[in-house]
Write a structure and sequence with these properties.
It holds the Pfam family OTCace. The protein has 307 residues and is α/β, with parallel strands linked by helices. Helices cover 42% and strands 14% of the residues. The chain contains 12 helices and 9 strands. The termini are close together. The protein binds phosphoric acid mono(formamide)ester and norvaline (NVA).
C-alpha cells in the first residue's frame, strides 16, 4: 500500500530513525542515491508562500536525479475548479510523488486517498512534519541521541509547528513541552495522540501556560511566528496575547546553560524571539534550514522504496 507522510505520527519510531539515519548519510554523500534518475518528476504544489520548502524540495529532487515541477495553486485548477481528488488522479499518471503546502489537513487526506503515489505534507494549518524531520536531524547532530531529551516549544501551541512538535518528539521518545496561552493550546486530540505515543516510547507530552516553568532545565528551546500564514488579520490580538512568550536571553537562562535554540523560520525578531537569542551562540537555525534538504531527500527515498 502506498505510504504517505501527512502528519508526524505517520511514521513509527523505527521508521523515523531510519529516515534520520538516511538523511545523515545523504548529508555526508549528497549525490549517492538517485531513485528519481530518468528523470522522474515530482510535483510540488504551493497554496501558500515559501522559501525554504520550495528551494529544498526543488534542489533535493534534482539531487536525487529527478525533475521538480513547482506549481502555484493560484495558476492551477486546484484553486477552485477541481478537487484534490481529481487532481491526484491526473498527477499520479505522470509524477513519482506529490508534495503539497496547503491550508486544511483534510485536503491532503483527500489527495492521498485519490492517488497511488506518495503524498507529502509540505505544511498545512495543522502540521509541518517535514520541518520536524529537519529539526530532529539538527538536534541529533548537536546532541547525539534524541530519546530522553527535553524540548519546549513556546508560542502558538495550536499551530502546525506546535502540533508537529508534540507528535514528532513523542515518536522520538523525547519529553516535549508546549508553553502557550490557554486559548492557543494544541488540539486536545493531538495531545492525546502524543501522550499515547509517548507512553510507548518512554517520552512524555505536557502542556504549560507558564513559559518560565516550561523552559526550566530543558535541553532545547523552540519557537515560531505568532502569526502563521492565513492568520494575518489576527496579528494585533496575537501580538498582545503572546507578549509574555518571547524567547529572550532572560527566558533562555532558565533552560540548560548549553540549551539549543531552534526556529523553523521565517522569524519576526523582536516578537517571538529577541535578536540576541536567534543570532546568538545557542541558535542552530542555519543548520536547521539546511537540514530541510537532507531530511526531505531521505523522506522521498524512503517513501519511494516502500512496496
Ligand atoms: N520553515 C519553512 O517551512 O519555511 P518556508 O515557509 O520558507 O518554506
Ligand atoms: N507556523 C508558520 C510556519 C512557517 C514555516 C506558518 O504556518 O506560517
Amino acid at each position: 500500500m502506498t505510504r504517505h507522510f501527512l502528519r508526524d505520527d505517520d511514521l513509527t519510531t523505527a521508521e523515523q530513525a531510519e529516515i534520520l539515519d538516511l538523511a545523515a548519510e545523504l548529508k555526508r554523500d549528497r549525490f549517492s542515491v538517485r531513485p528519481l534518475a530518468g528523470p522522474q518528476t515530482v510535483a510540488v504544489i504551493f497554496d501558500k508562500s515559501s522559501t525554504r520548502t520550495r528551494v529544498s524540495f526543488a534542489v533535493g529532487i534534482a539531487d536525487l536525479g529527478g525533475s521538480p515541477l513547482i506549481i502555484s495553486t493560484a495558476n492551477s485548477q486546484l484553486s477552485g475548479k477541481e478537487t484534490a481528488s481529481d487532481t491526484a488522479r491526473v498527477l499520479e499518471r505522470q509524477v513519482a510523488a506529490i508534495v503539497w503546502r496547503t491550508y486544511a489537513q483534510t485536503g491532503l487526506e483527500e489527495m492521498a486517498l485519490g492517488t497511488s503515489v506518495p503524498v507529502i505534507n509540505a505544511l498545512s494549518d495543522e502540521f509541518h512534519p517535514c520541518q520536524l524531520l529537519a529539526d530532529l536531524l539538527t538536534i541529533r547532530e548537536h546532541r547525539g541521541e534524541l530519546a530522553g531529551l527535553t524540548v519546549t516549544f513556546l508560542g502558538d501551541g495550536a499551530s502546525n509547528m506546535g502540533q508537529s512538535y508534540l507528535l514528532a518528539c513523542a515518536t522520538a521518545g523525547m519529553h516535549v513541552r508546549i508553553a502557550a496561552p490557554a486559548e492557543y493550546a494544541p488540539g486536545a486530540q493531538v495531545v492525546l495522540n502524543a501522550q499515547a505515543i509517548a507512553s510507548r516510547t518512554g517520552g512524555s507530552a505536557t502542556i504549560f501556560t507558564d513559559p518560565v516553568e516550561a523552559v526550566s532545565g530543558v535541553d532545547i528551546v523552540v519557537t515560531d511566528t505568532w502569526v502563521s500564514m492565513g492568520k494575518e488579520d489576527e496579528k494585533a490580538a496575537r501580538v498582545k496575547t503572546f507578549g509574555g512568550y518571547q524567547v529572550d536571553s532572560e527566558l533562555m537562562a532558565h533552560a540548560k546553560s548549553d540549551a539549543l535554540f531552534l526556529h523553523c523560520l521565517p522569524a519576526d525578531r523582536g516578537y517571538e524571539v529577541s535578536a540576541d537569542v536567534i543570532d546568538g551562540p545557542q541558535s542552530v537555525i542555519w543548520d536547521e534550514a539546511e537540514n530541510r534538504l537532507h531530511a526531505q531527500k531521505a523522506l522521498l527515498v524512503w517513501l519511494l522504496r516502500q512496496p
